[in-house]
Amino acid sequence: MCTSPRFLPYGRQIIDDADIQAVVDVLRSDWLTTGPAVECFETDACAYTGAGHGVAVASGTAALHAAMFALDIGRGDEVIVTPMTFAASANCILYQGGTPVFADVDADTLLLDPAAVEAAITPRTKAIIAVDYAGQPCHWDKLRTIADKQHLALVADSCHALGAAYKGRRVGTLADITAFSFHPVKHITTGEGGMAVTNDAALAARMRAFRGHGITTTARQREKSGAWFYEMTELGYNYRITDFQCALGSSQLKKLDGWIARRNQLAQAYDAALAGSAVRPLAKRSAMRHAYHLYVVRTPERNTVFKHLRAQGIGANVHYIPVHMHPYYQELGYKKGICPIAEAAYETILTLPLWPGMRGEDVERVYTSVRQAEKHGDISC
């Protein structure tokens, strides 16, 4: 008789008593939004990443949208972006009236291919958005050289990569603007939430106004100065984040390095267990600190392995359908075949569970089930 094992998600948050207390303290304070905890979280994130300015917002998508706004992306502008990502990486370009131009990925890492980026540049190109897919930093030196040579803005969608590093530099200082996400499956969580970081004070000021309707001051700033007057100078959005979310973020950030170390330990355990298997992890580049938001493998029997793992209560997933293959983008005129490497990879990639709260026996359960599926085909109750 088959039993139902404990469901093992591909990712989840870890919340402890210190996190709960941090939130409770803010709930008992005078400020629930636009207050001191927001500024504190921004300061903490900048101290961690090395960036000069942080703008906390409602989501990673909001951070990307704010970046496109701050860079004046508009109608007629092209922005080069990877197809191997969540749709928000390209949607943020559309929000501003710009045109996403998809450049293909490196076959081994599924990171944006600098050569493909260079080939996609036209006189209308204004920026590049590169995604640190699965938590591994992109080829930032090469992308920086291309951007500088062509006078393009460089944006890091690092929603997978908080805590990662590239040649000794932490992600957050490698592009003109870097976007992070604090969704519960990410490295730290604020429930929903995100942040854009930059070393450019003018870009930070534009993003800060953009998150609050394009208004020049916040309610707290006006209270501190004893003034009521404010002006809306640009069309912004309500992308604000609450103080209790930011208090949670600051508390979580204190534990980030330990969680990144644990993610790497779990990834190494998977690597060792799958050695010699037809199920292969993505290549890991040298001189990088991988953040392992996702542990992605490639298998020619992806659908068989997926179904077997799900039947065993293991929350395998697929990241991602290439963005240009979604129906909405197909209706915009994007065609299959424009990014053949990403499209071929999509047919074989599978995300296995990986998050810091996993135990050694959880990893063993996953790779044992993978081996069973590989050896015997679809095994179900």
Describe the structure.
The chain is an alpha/beta fold and 381 residues long. It folds into 2 domains: 17-253, Type I PLP-dependent aspartate aminotransferase-like (Major domain) (Aspartate Aminotransferase, domain 2, 3-Layer(aba) Sandwich); 256-376, Aspartate Aminotransferase, domain 1 (Alpha-Beta Complex). Helices cover 39% and strands 13% of the residues. The chain is built from 14 helices and 13 strands. The protein has helices at 17-27, 36-49, 60-70, 88-95, 114-120, 140-150, 201-210, 219-225, 243-253, 256-274, 302-311, 327-331, 340-346, 360-376, and strands spanning 53-57, 78-81, 99-102, 125-131, 153-157, 165-166, 169-170, 177-181, 194-198, 280-281, 288-289, 295-298, 349-352. A 7-stranded mixed β-sheet has the order 1-9-8-5-4-2-3, with helices on both faces. Helix 3 (60-70) packs across helix 7. The mean pLDDT is 96.
Quickly describe the structure.
This protein is an alpha/beta fold and 381 residues long.
Keywords:
13 strands, alpha/beta, three-stranded antiparallel beta sheet, Aspartate Aminotransferase, domain 1, seven-stranded mixed beta sheet, 39% helix, globular, 2 domains, Aspartate Aminotransferase, domain 2, 381 residues, 14 helices
